[in-house]
């Protein structure tokens, strides 16, 4: 997968968590996901247009509860609609900000978020799209962002060249 | 002053309400999507609207276009994750007066609200 579509998520997740939660995020080594790692809460966003696929923020319960409390400014009960709403808004902000940092000229839309809650669940994806998993460390605990997207080739070679130039700059 | 918040996320509406409370605004009407906002806006007669873009049923841009057919004066601030330049231009063309990209700090949202209200007051004077 083109790193120009992965780096924006790293920038975005750090920006969203530092701005909205005052919570610094340390980024671990991105890897291609193999097998299923169970989590307790996942926020999911779909991407369509020039880039298609899904973005998932997955948390263990303890970490999710601390993150949501910081985001909302108060404790929010697990497995309530307010809790799910907060997780959905976080993945929405991370994905929306990331797509703005994609190479120039790419038109991408994001879906409304979905949230899955359940002990030790896993999220299945299209098998033909590799999933990049990025571990994220915070004082609230560790979570991951999983990115399984593919980009359509740029139709205009000049636009592609400009996009590459803008990324290098 | 009455302010309408249009966002499908209750969390985000609560964050915005907290910022508005700090500015002394407590007369708030909430809508959870564009359709809900259209059904409430005539009766509510808000003095300012904060509108998200991506929402189910009716997105914020469609709401702004529909609202502007009958109301050109009430200021609208788009508060959204949509940060691309093209999206901002699209929103301004549809009738949005100011734009805030999520994530935002309380200070930034306060500043945008105050400058939008100041422009409205200046144009009314």
Give a description of the structure:
The complex is a heterodimer of chains A (169) and B (125). Chain A is α+β, with helices and mostly antiparallel strands and 169 residues long. Chain A has a single domain (3-168), classed as Chemotaxis protein chec, CATH 3.40.1550. Chain A is 35% helix and 31% strand. Chain A contains 4 helices and 8 strands; from the N terminus they run αββββααββββα. In chain A, helix 1 (7-21) packs across helix 3 (81-100). Chain A is globular. The model of chain A is unreliable at 156-169 (pLDDT under 50). With 125 residues, chain B is of the alpha/beta class. Chain B has a single domain, classed as Rossmann fold (3-Layer(aba) Sandwich), CATH 3.40.50. A 5-stranded parallel β-sheet of chain B has the order 2-1-3-4-5, with helices on both faces. In chain B, strand 1, helix 1 and strand 2 (27-31) form a beta-alpha-beta unit. In chain B, helix 1 crosses helix 5 (106-124) and helix 2 packs parallel to helix 3 (60-68). The radius of gyration of chain B is 13 Å and the shape is globular. The chains are: A alpha+beta (169), B alpha/beta (125). Chain A binds chain B through residues 15-16, 19-20, 71-73, 81-82, 85-86, 88-89, 92-93, 95-97, 99-100, 107, 110-112, and chain B through 8-12, 14-15, 18, 54-56, 80-84, 86, 101-105.
Summary?
The complex is a heterodimer of chains A (169) and B (125). By secondary structure, chain A is α+β, with helices and mostly antiparallel strands.
CATH class of chain A: Alpha Beta
What's the helix-strand series of chain B?
EHEHEHEHEH
Q: Could you please say which CATH topology of chain A applies here?
A: Chemotaxis protein chec
- Percent of residues of chain B in beta strands? 15-25%
Low-confidence stretches of chain A: 156-169
User: Which CATH architecture of chain A would you pick?
Assistant: 3-Layer(aba) Sandwich
Number of strands of chain B: 5
CATH topology of chain B: Rossmann fold
Oligomer type = heterodimer
> Total number of helical segments of chain B?
5
Termini gap of chain A: 20 Å
Question: What's the overall geometry of chain B?
Answer: globular
């Amino acid at each position: 997968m083109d790193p120009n579509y992965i780096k924006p998520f790293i920038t975005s997740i750090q920006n969203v968590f530092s701005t909205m939660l005052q919570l610094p995020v340390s980024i671990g080594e991105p890897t291609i996901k193999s097998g299923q790692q169970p989590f307790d809460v996942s926020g999911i966003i779909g991407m369509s247009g020039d880039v298609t696929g899904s973005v998932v923020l997955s948390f263990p319960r303890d970490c999710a509860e601390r993150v949501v409390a910081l985001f909302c400014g108060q404790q929010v009960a697990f497995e309530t609609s307010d809790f799910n709403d907060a997780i959905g808004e976080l993945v929405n902000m991370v994905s929306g900000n990331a797509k703005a940092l994609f190479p120039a000229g790419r038109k991408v839309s994001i879906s409304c978020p979905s949230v899955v809650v359940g002990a030790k669940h896993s999220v299945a994806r299209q098998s033909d799209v590799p999933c990049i998993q990025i571990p994220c460390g915070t004082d609230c605990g560790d979570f991951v962002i999983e990115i399984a997207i593919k980009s359509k080739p740029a139709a205009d070679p000049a636009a592609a060249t400009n996009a590459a130039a803008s990324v290098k700059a | 002053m009455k302010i309408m918040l249009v966002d499908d996320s209750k969390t985000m509406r609560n964050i915005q309400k907290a910022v508005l409370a700090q500015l002394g605004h407590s007369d708030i009407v909430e809508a959870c999507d564009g359709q809900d906002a259209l059904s409430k806006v005539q009766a509510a007669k808000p003095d300012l609207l904060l509108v998200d873009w991506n929402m189910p049923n009716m997105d914020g841009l469609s709401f702004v276009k529909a609202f502007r057919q009958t109301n050109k004066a009430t200021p609208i601030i788009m508060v959204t994750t949509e940060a691309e330049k093209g999206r901002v231009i699209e929103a301004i063309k549809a009738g949005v007066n100011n734009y805030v990209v999520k994530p935002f700090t309380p200070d930034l949202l306060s500043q945008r609200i105050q400058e939008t209200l100041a422009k409205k007051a200046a144009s009314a004077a």
